[in-house]
Amino acid sequence: METIVFVGAGSMAEAMIGGIVKQGAMEPKNVFVINKSDDARLQSLKDKYGISTVRANKEALKKMDLVIFATKPKDIHQAMADMLPFLADHTAALSVIAGVSIQTIEEGLGNRPIARAMPNTSATIGKSATAVAWNESVESHTKELVLGLLNAIGMVKEVEEDELHAVTALSGSGPAYVYYLAEALEEAATRQGLSKETSRALIIQTFEGAAAMMKKIGAEPTELRKHVTSPGGTTEAGITALENQSFKEIIMDCINKAEARSRELGRLD
What value does the mean pLDDT take over residues 193-210? Predict the structure, then answer.
């Protein structure tokens, strides 16, 4: 049975741990977590999920099959330096840190199987949209392990590493765009006289229903939109307002700016 260790105990690490344990992807006893100094945080994760912790004595790291780096970008170099003396030659690495390249991990950990993934915060409820890229040392058994863990927190797509910049802009940051749209819809609805409670409930169900239609029916978004948009009707009036405000161009600029920022962060690692 494989064993894994999370380096970093923040929100992304917890989201992944929760998904892995709840979905039965691994036995809790084979999931470990370590951080710089916050023992109270480690104890909290141990109590909540039944996992194991690594503190001052790092000997347990020698039996790990996979080390998952989930630190802040500024901490990755020190984290790798701290872990390297205790990692076996066969131990693979997975980074879920935005902007940290596979090359950076290779330089810090040497020649070993390395994967780089970009989950999003919906991993907390097992609904992450994740993409993953590999270095040339990754073989089938490592892919199987990493894909199993990532599928436990949602869905996963394999991409080339350079495409992770676009993934970061789209699905990595995507939940924030959806929440921002929800903010705008809620504000508009309350200005029209609906209560916040009613507006929120209708918005959530509308998002869920539209996403389910795209997933289950499989039609193009354009086709689904046209089915809702009767000539001369209310939806057409709303779509016209969006078109007049160059809505698509705004979204494209949003993705372009986020993608460019991801590349910039990559150059800073």
Answer: 98
